[in-house]
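Structure tokens please, single chain.
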Amino acid sequence: MGKAEETKARVERAALTLFVARGVTETTTREIAMAASIAEGTIYRHFPSKEQLALDLFLRHHRALAEALAGVAQQAQGLRAQIDAIVRCYCKWADEDWTLFAYHLLTQHMFLAMVPEGTPNPVDVLREVIVQAMATGEIPSRDADLAAASAIGTVMQPATYKLYGRFEGPLSAHANFFAEAAWAVLSVKEA
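Here you go.
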């Protein structure tokens, strides 16, 4: 990695840490520069603005997570195996870089509307798996978005609890529970 790439990586890591701790709006470029041990003007060699830095960080993680989830889903056969693979992948991503994962979780409401059309999306990956399972009769047909939201909630809500200190430790330690809960949500028959 060259010096410019190393500096950019330091800026991004410092920004992530501050954005998670204080919020994007509340964090200043001066604070980012201090945390990265660079001059404030150096940030602008890599990013036109703090807002663009924040959006770039979100989009890169959003796309990479979606691609990782799609990859594991394609390798698994049947909905139950796909759900298990998706949940394990999601937990692994959270555990490998909690700061980046927490940033994505905390800023999704700010940036989801700015995701360019056609960009891989983690929610769309799960939704497509669910739609295919409904089409083959693996699970009852219902509103695919409601089913996806309900299944996602079995992992996202615990991740949110971890974010706010309600429990500690790796999400992967609970992957079996999350996968079983998602499967239970998806396989329930409506009355």
